[in-house]
Each structure stands twice: as structure tokens, then as C-alpha cells.
């Protein structure tokens, strides 16, 4: 049996062990219906910690704004870990704003395409807001929208950080009235797309967990762009958070590329610590961790040119 076939079998076995999912249409767009899946905690799993309710995790998948699905079996082992720990997981669709958009290979072409990337990011933000509003309008689903953590991988991590940024800036149209904000945000190889220079949070966002490879060629760890347009990655975001004394836990993976976008299951202990300490217990804590571990999984390095 080849590696791909073996992986398919293993993923199928994992899928059969998951609790039954529930699927709902949370929004209708001109081009598509947007669905979300709810994965409930495993039977008997503890849903509180120190008598405090654990948050639900709203997950935004990756795929360069051109591909990806909310129910890719690749994510199932991670979903299962969260279920076993008593967390509800909500995995959602969003519109793929770069699908069919032509992007050149040169830096100048990327500069010209930055507006397309920004629009794709903001479409994702709008869709996340719509998902929160849907859950708020349907309390019978049992998801407390006052107790949500947002998490994303790659393009989903870009959306995640843009959501945290927009809420901090007061741009909350589309969210339910009185929404208190997310309790935390977890970003795996994320950044913020800006057309107006480096994004500066005007006030503290929700606590952030930033995981990023220092050699990421697909989503900038530091900064990619010119003349006020581009991507500002985890390094730049953490710099402001640290300067202001705001809650930010950054894990820098030395020499790692875009692999870190797929580290959600690998880093579960890190996420669990962040959720229990910064989110549930509300401890004001920041961390800056550099990891140089050759035993971590590695896949073929990809760059923006490979994606577009």
C-alpha cells in the first residue's frame, strides 16, 4: 500500500471515531450557500475547568483563498482532540475570494494584486461575522457566542487576525448587537493584509496565540510588500502586542516554512495551555518562545508563486 492510500485509510478510520456532526446553513450569498459543522464534546468529556465553561472553537480552514473545505479529513484528528477535552468545534465555510483571480509571479504583480488579497480577507471577515450572528440568533444550538475562540490556518489564520484587528478598530458591522468580542484567537501561519501601511491595533485585541515558521514563503512571518501595501505577519503583530503589554503568546519555529499552518494537532498541548490559562482563567500572560526542533513534521516548502 502506498503512502497516499495508507493516509486515506487512516483518515477514514479517524472519521468513524468522531462524534456525529451537525450541519447548518448560516448564510446565503450570491454565489453559494455557506455551511457550518458543529462537533460536540465527546461523551463524558469535561466541559468546564475550575467551574468555568470551556469556550467553543470557531475554525477557519486554509487554502490560499482559492481552495480548502471546512470538513477536510486532515483536520479530524485535531477536532477529535478538542472534543475529547470537552470543547465544541465549529468549522465553517467562507467565500474563496481569490478563486479565479490571476496573480503574476513578480513582486510588482503581487503588489498590484494586493487589493484582491485584501478583498478576499475582508470577505472572510464578513463571513465569520455572519456565522457568529447565526449562532447568536439560534440559541437552541447551544453555542454561547459570548464564549468563543477563533482559530485559523494559513488563509484562515489571515482571516482570524483580520477579525481580531477589525473588532479592535470598532469595525463590527454584521456582528450581533452587544457581542463582547472573541475570548481569544489562535493563528497558525497568519498575517494581516493591509493597503494602508502596517496595521496598528488602536486598543488591545483578544489574547492572541501566534504560531509561525520564520522561513515561511507563503504567508510572511515578518513583512512582504511595498509602499504601504502587503502582508504583516506574526513577528510584526507580536512586536506591537509586546510593546503595549497586551496578551500575546508567540511561538517562532526557526527555519520552518509554511508547515506550521498544519501544526494544529502537533501543537495541541500549546493550544490547551493557552486556552486554559489566557482564555478560561483569564490570566494576563505573554510568552515568546523560539523552537528549533528537527523532529517536527515537515512537508515540501511552498511559496506564493507555488500557490498562484
Short description:
It contains seven helices and 14 strands. It is of the alpha/beta class. It has a single domain, classed as Rossmann fold (3-Layer(aba) Sandwich), CATH 3.40.50.1820.
Describe this structure in words.
With 308 residues, this protein is of the alpha/beta class. It has a single domain (29-307), classed as Rossmann fold (3-Layer(aba) Sandwich). The protein has helices spanning 3-17, 76-84, 107-137, 155-168, 234-244, 268-280, 304-307, and strands at residues 22-28, 33-39, 48-49, 52-53, 56-60, 89-92, 148-153, 184-188, 191-194, 208-213, 223-226, 229-233, 248-253, 287-291. Helix 3 packs across helix 4 (155-168). 44% of the residues are buried.
What is this structure's SSE topology?
Layout: H1 3-17, E1 22-28, E2 33-39, E3 48-49, E4 52-53, E5 56-60, H2 76-84, E6 89-92, H3 107-137, E7 148-153, H4 155-168, E8 184-188, E9 191-194, E10 208-213, E11 223-226, E12 229-233, H5 234-244, E13 248-253, H6 268-280, E14 287-291, H7 304-307
Parallel strand pairs: 5-6, 5-7, 7-8, 8-10, 10-13, 13-14
Antiparallel strand pairs: 1-2, 2-6, 3-4, 9-12, 11-12
Helix pairs in contact: 3-4
Name the strands of the widest sheet in spatial order.
Answer: 1-2-6-5-7-8-10-13-14
The helicity comes to 25-40%
Number of domains: 1
What's the CATH class, please?
Answer: Alpha Beta
Tertiary shape: globular
Radius of gyration, CA atoms, in whole angstroms: 18 Å
Unreliable sequence segments:
1-16
Q: What does the main sheet amount to?
A: 9 strands, mixed
> Structural class per helix/strand content?
alpha/beta
Number of helices: 7
Tell me the number of strands: 14
Terminal-residue CA separation: 32 Å
Strand content: 15-25%
CATH architecture designation? 3-Layer(aba) Sandwich
Chain-averaged pLDDT: 93
The CATH superfamily is Alpha/Beta hydrolase fold, catalytic domain
Q: Secondary-structure element sequence? A: HEEEEEHEHEHEEEEEHEHEH
CATH topology: Rossmann fold
Amino acid at each position: 500500500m502506498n503512502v497516499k492510500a495508507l493516509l486515506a485509510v487512516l483518515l477514514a478510520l479517524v472519521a468513524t471515531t468522531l462524534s456525529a456532526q451537525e450541519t447548518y446553513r448560516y448564510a446565503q450569498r450570491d454565489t453559494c450557500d455557506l455551511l457550518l459543522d458543529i462537533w460536540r464534546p465527546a461523551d463524558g468529556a469535561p466541559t468546564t475547568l475550575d467551574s468555568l465553561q470551556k469556550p467553543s472553537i470557531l475554525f477557519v480552514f486554509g487554502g490560499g483563498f482559492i481552495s480548502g473545505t471546512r470538513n477536510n479529513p486532515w483536520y479530524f484528528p485535531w477536532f477529535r482532540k478538542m472534543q475529547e477535552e470537552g470543547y465544541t468545534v465549529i468549522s465553517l465555510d467562507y467565500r474563496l475570494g481569490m478563486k479565479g483571480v490571476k496573480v503574476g509571479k513578480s513582486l510588482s504583480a503581487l503588489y498590484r494584486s494586493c487589493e484582491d488579497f485584501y478583498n478576499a480577507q475582508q470577505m472572510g471577515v464578513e463571513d465569520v461575522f455572519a456565522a457568529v450572528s447565526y449562532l447568536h440568533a439560534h440559541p437552541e444550538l447551544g453555542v454561547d457566542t459570548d464564549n468563543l475562540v477563533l482559530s485559523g490556518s494559513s488563509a484562515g489564520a489571515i482571516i482570524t487576525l483580520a477579525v481580531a484587528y477589525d473588532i479592535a478598530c470598532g469595525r463590527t458591522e454584521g456582528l450581533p448587537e452587544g457581542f463582547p468580542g472573541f475570548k481569544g484567537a489562535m493563528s497558525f501561519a497568519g498575517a494581516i493584509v493591509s493597503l494602508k501601511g502596517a496595521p496598528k491595533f488602536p486598543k488591545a485585541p483578544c489574547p492572541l496565540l501566534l504560531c509561525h515558521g520564520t522561513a515561511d514563503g507563503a504567508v510572511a512571518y515578518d513583512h512582504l510588500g511595498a509602499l504601504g501595501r502587503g502582508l504583516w505577519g506574526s513577528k510584526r503583530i507580536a512586536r506591537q502586542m509586546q510593546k503595549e503589554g497586551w496578551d500575546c503568546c508567540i511561538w517562532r519555529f526557526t527555519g520552518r516554512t509554511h508547515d506550521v499552518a498544519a501544526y494544529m494537532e502537533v501543537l495541541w498541548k500549546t493550544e490547551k495551555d493557552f486556552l486554559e490559562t489566557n482564555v478560561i482563567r483569564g490570566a494576563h500572560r505573554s510568552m515568546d518562545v523560539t523552537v528549533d526542533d528537527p523532529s517536527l513534521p515537515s512537508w515540501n516548502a511552498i511559496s506564493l508563486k507555488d500557490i498562484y
